[in-house]
Design brief:
Blueprint lengths: L1 E10 L2 E12 L4 E5 L4 H4 L1 H11 L8 E7 L11 H11 L13 E2 L2 E2 L5 E2 L4 H10 L4 E5 L3 H4 L6 E5 L2 H9 L30 H13 L3 E4 L6 H7 L9 H13 L14 E2 L7 H5 E2 L4 E2 L1 H4 L4 E4 L7 H5 L2 H6 L1 E5 L4 E5 L3 E6 L18 H8 L4 H5 L3 E4 L5 H5 L7 H19 L11 H7 L4 H14 L3 H18 L6 H9 L12
Parallel strand pairs: 3-4, 5-8, 8-9, 10-17, 10-18, 11-14, 14-17
Antiparallel strand pairs: 1-2, 2-4, 6-7, 12-13, 15-16
Helix pairs in contact: 2-3, 7-17, 7-20, 17-20, 19-21, 20-21
Length: 509
């Protein structure tokens, strides 16, 4: 007796259909799963047996063979538990309905008592299946929050195997989900820019970074406010659009970080420890999973104590900073993850952290400082738009009443600048940092005076061609914040001052 149930699996962020073929035949009792299953799929044998038995059905003492087609692609995860159980019951004629009526697709992990647990990557499965014409789904009830994000589908959330069987037999149909409303997100209100005392120069740099989507490096002694500024950056960024909400939610769904929660409507803020590995940062594994750069997609990736990260870990950031995607290649598969994030990095000026501090003596020798700064390579610094020095906060500023601007006031200017950028770029890019070289030439034209000024600055600082492009993008953002149509010498001068740390050894002077 043979039964076939439709299901799906996820590779990277994309889903592909899987046919769960169940054959129950004559022979010694056995339960075999073929089709390149991983350990989690192989262990489904025990979960499926117990779930069927505890749902008052029988697993026959026969030879059971389950094939997961296509057989040449590795299958991972417990999402095939439910279709396997339904396939066995259909093949042994214990249910009075086709295993998958009207092309219904089933996914779900089974607990031993027959309950359904959530699965990772359901949003990718639904989006992929919808593009291939599938419209009916049975999914675990804990996944209902993310399933309701996809419109145009008939999705039935179930909590137990018995409930799925009753739905398939028509005795107790499961009502379909209603599509969730598109809710707008407000920025977090537990932190605010006016919490940061002093550091007006650094606040200005963070406003420019938010307005243009630029990367930032904060350099200063311990306690100068680098981490405080980084954690408050999301409060002045624009809210995610619905398309960006779906992108971010899909990433977190595949990573298994939703687990029944609704959409991710706030911009991500990821702050991995400096002991993180390369795979943790960019993603990896036999079936590649998203890393921190992808979990920070459409948000902020904060790398505190930048020189303490391993050199090879930092160097893998070069591609995503430039291309805004990360490609992870393995022997059996190659996947591409999105990585359009803002990088905010923080570091001390020397190993002890007090170089240049008027109140604390630096105990580091010049060779120690040089070795410390060389941990961050020139090519990586070249890809960071703003290099910001942050001095020690003065006692008078610490003890005074906060008088700085709030996140709401700064965010209003950022939103006006972003609106100007999007009107200019026409949807080809979302901010100035994403401009292509052709867009850069078109929208960042300079007059003769500005060209002469920039030429002289390039000769004095020895900036690379990449740094030249980033200076132009930065100047364009500064002009947008002021509502200026053209780029002036003042805009270029402010942009160039943020390239003071373009070479690590310049910090030794």
């Amino acid at each position: 007796m043979l039964a076939r149930v439709r299901s799906a699996a996820v590779l990277g962020l994309q889903a592909y259909p899987v046919d769960v073929e169940v054959d129950v035949g004559i022979g010694l009792p056995a339960f075999t799963i073929v089709g390149l299953p991983d350990a989690a799929v192989q262990e489904a044998k025990e979960r499926v047996r117990a779930a069927i038995r505890n749902s008052n059905y029988q697993v026959p003492a026969r030879k059971i063979t389950i094939n997961l087609a296509p057989a040449d692609v590795r299958k991972a995860g417990p999402a095939f538990d439910l279709p396997m159980a339904i396939g066995i019951l259909a093949a042994t004629r214990q249910i009075r309905a086709p295993a998958a009526p009207n092309g219904t697709m089933l996914v779900g992990e089974l607990s031993l008592d027959g309950g359904l647990r959530p699965v990772a990557g359901l949003l990718s499965i639904l989006l992929g299946a919808r593009s291939r014409g599938t419209r009916a789904f049975i999914v675990p009830e804990p996944n209902a929050g993310e399933a309701a994000l996809v419109d145009g589908l008939q999705i039935h959330p179930a909590s137990t195997l018995a409930q799925v069987i009753a739905h398939l037999e028509g005795t107790s149909p499961i009502p379909p989900l209603r599509t969730a409303p598109r809710a707008a997100a407000s920025p977090p209100d537990d932190v605010d820019f006016n919490d940061v005392r002093g550091q007006d120069h650094a606040k200005r740099a963070m406003e420019i970074a938010a307005a243009g989507g630029h990367n930032v490096l904060l350099v200063g002694p311990p306690g100068a406010g680098k981490t405080m500024l980084a954690r408050r950056l999301p409060t002045i960024l624009p809210s995610l659009t619905w398309e960006e909400v779906m992108e971010v939610t899909q990433v977190y769904s595949v990573a298994g970080l939703l687990r029944g929660s609704g959409p991710r409507i706030l911009r991500p803020f990821r702050s991995p420890h400096h002991a993180s590995s390369t795979a943790a940062l960019i993603g990896g594994g036999p079936g590649p999973r998203p890393g921190e750069v992808t979990l920070a997609h459409r948000g902020v990736l904060f790398l505190d104590e930048l020189p303490e990260f391993h050199r090879d870990v930092l160097e893998v950031l070069r591609q995503p900073l430039e291309d805004r995607v990360i490609t992870v290649a393995r022997v059996q598969s190659t996947v591409t993850f999105p990585a359009a994030f803002m990088l905010v990095a923080a570091m001390n000026p020397c190993p002890c952290g007090h170089r240049g501090d008027e109140k604390r003596e630096c105990l580091c020798t010049p060779p120690q400082v040089a070795r410390y700064l060389r941990r961050v390579s020139g090519p990586l610094l070249d890809r960071i738009d703003l290099h910001v020095e942050m001095p020690r906060v003065l006692p008078a500023e610490l003890t005074s009443v906060p008088t700085g601007e709030s996140s709401t006031e700064i965010r209003a200017r950022v939103l006006r600048a972003r609106a100007i950028e999007q009107a200019r770029l026409g949807g080809a890019a979302s901010c100035n940092a994403e401009m292509t070289p052709r867009q850069l030439r078109r929208h960042c034209r300079l007059g003769e005076e500005e060209k002469a000024f920039l030429r002289g600055a390039l000769e004095r600082l020895g900036l690379s061609a990449r740094a030249y492009d980033r200076v132009l993008r930065l100047a364009r953002t500064i002009a947008d914040l002021e509502g200026s149509d053209g780029i002036t010498v003042a805009h270029l001068a402010e942009a160039i001052q943020y390239r003071a740390f373009d070479r690590p050894l310049r910090l030794l002077g």
